Amino acid sequence: MGKKLRACKTCGKSVQGDGHLCDPVELTKAFVCEDCGASSLDAKHVCKPKLQKLKYTCEKCGRLSVGSDKLCKPVEI
Q1: Per-residue DSSP letter, 70
Q2: In sequence order, which residues have a C-beta less than 8 Å from that of residue 59 and are 6 or more positions away?
Q3: Residues 39 and 59 in one domain
Q4: How far is CA 12 from each of CA 30, 47, 50, 65, rounded to the nearest angstrom?
């Protein structure tokens, strides 16, 4: 059985197992950011590396994206 992923409610740091944390809580569904490597419970996590990759906005709804294929009316930023 694998070690559980835990995150600090205060500082956001996450560790596997019983590592030292300020105020640990067990994470049930952690997302690991492909851009910065941070663990988060927020699927809409946006970090500086991800912001730098955004190249398109949707003229219709205003959504931002790295690629134009994810938007209905893409416009390059």
Answers
A1: G
A2: 73, 74, 75
A3: no
A4: 12, 14, 18, 26
Sheet holding 14-16, edge to edge: 14-16, 5-8, 24-26
Domain shared by 18 and 39, yes or no: yes
Q: Where are the beta strands (DSSP E) in 1-58?
A: 5-8, 14-16, 24-26, 31-32, 39-40, 56-58
Question: Would you say 31 and 10 are in contact if contact means Cβ atoms under 8 Å apart?
Answer: no
If one counts the domains in the chain, the total is 2
Neighbours of 56 (CB within 10 A): 19
Q: Which two tokens stand for residue 58?
A: 């949707």
Q: What is the pLDDT of residues 5-48, one digit of tens each?
A: 776 666 666 666 655 555 555 656 677 888 888 877 776 778 88
Residue 35 domain boundaries: 1-45
